[in-house]
Amino acid sequence: MHTLLTPLDWGLGHASRSLALARRLEAEGQRVSWASSGPAAEMLRRELPGQTVHELPAYRVSYPSKNMYWNVARQAWRWRATIRAEQRATAELVERLDVDRIISDSRFGCHHREVPSVFLTHQLQPITHFAPATAVYRWQLGHFDEYWVPDDPEPGRLSGKLSDPAGYENVHFIGPLPHLSPSPGTPPFDVLVVLSGPEPMRSRLEAILLPQLAALPVSVRVVRGLPAATATLAGDYPFEIENFADTARLSSLLTAARYVVARSGYSTLMDLRGLDKKAILIPTPGQTEQLYLAQRAQLQGWAVAVMDQERLDLRRSLERLTGAPLG
To answer: Which UniProt keywords apply (predicted)?
Structure first.
C-alpha cells in the first residue's frame, strides 16, 4: 500500500499527528509519500531528512483579528482558490507517484475520484455558530470515502462532541496519535512554553508571555514553534529560548517539564495527555474548536484554561494549576 499523506499547514499540529500516523503505517509495511506547504512542510523536511516533501498550494492563513467571522470572510476567496489548486496538484501527484490511497489531514482539496481518499480529522462537527459555514464544511467532506478520527470512540473521548459521527458513514476511530513519547535526558525544570499557530496571534502571545515568564520565580524553557527561523529573539531573558525543537528534543523537554503552557490545539492535547502533563491552555482567539477543547480540559481537571490571551495573568494561572502560591 502506497499512501500519500497531506497535512494542513495551519500551524504544526497536523504535521505532527500525520508523522505519528506515518510511523504506524510504516510499521505495518506500508509506504508513505508526503505533500504539504508552509510551516508544516518545513517541519516535515526537518523531521524526515532525505525524504521528498512535495509542495502543495499554501493556505497562508492569518488571524489578524479576534473576530473569526471577519478573519474567514476576508480570506475565504483565497482558500477556495487554494482548494481548487490542491485538487489539481493532488491529481498530478497521484499520476506521477502511483499512489494507492490518499490520507488528507484536513486539506479539503486532497482527494481523487479514482483513488480511495481518507479525511483525517477530529472535527466531524465543527463549532461555527453559522449554519451556512457548517453546510459548506460538510459538503467539502462529502468528497471523501472514509473519515479517520484520531481518538477513541467512547463518550469520554478527548475530542468530545467535535468527533460525533452522526450524519457520516465510514467513520473509523483509529485511537489517539500522539507525536511525542517519554524521553529522559533533560534535567527537570518547572515550565515549558510551546508556541504555535497562525500569525500574528503566535507572535502576539509570545510578546505577552515573555515578560511575565521573566518575572516568575520558576525555571523556564521556551520553544517558539518556528521551523524555518534562524535568527534569535531580540531581548535578554533569563531562560533558554529555542526557535524549533524536533521530535527527540521536544519529547525530552516535555518529559522533563513539570507544567506546560501551550495553545489548545488537538494535536498538542494528544501529546499532553499521552505524557500525563498538566497545562495552562490558551486558545487561539476566535478559534472555536480550541476554546471548546480548553474548557473541556479544565472541566476534566488537568488544565487551566485562559480564554482571553490579552488578559493572561501567568502567575495566577500557575498558582491555580499547582494549587499553591509562587514564592
So the answer is: Transferase
Position 153 scores a pLDDT of 93
Cα distances from 228 to residues 57, 65, 225, 256, in angstroms, run: 18, 24, 9, 25
Mean pLDDT of 122-136: 86
Look up the pTM and report it.
0.92
Considering only CA atoms, which of 70, 145, 159 is closest in space to residue 111? 145
Pairing of strands 117-120, 146-149: parallel
With cell 503566535, the residue in question is 202
Q: Is the pLDDT of residue 260 over 80?
A: yes
CA distance 58 to 39: 10
Give ranges for CATH 3.40.50.2000 in the chain. 2-173, 189-322
Q: Which CATH class is domain 2-173?
A: alpha beta
Tell me what pLDDT residue 154 has.
86
Report d(CA 25, CA 29) in Å as an integer. 7
Span 189-322: which CATH code?
3.40.50.2000
Distance CA 228, CA 37 (A): 12
Type of residue numbered 204: R
Statement: residue 75 has pLDDT above 70: no
Q: What is the pLDDT of residue 69?
A: 58
Exposed e or buried b per residue across 100-123, where buried means at least 16 C-beta atoms within 10 angstroms of its C-beta: ebbbbbbbbbbbbeebbbbbbbbb
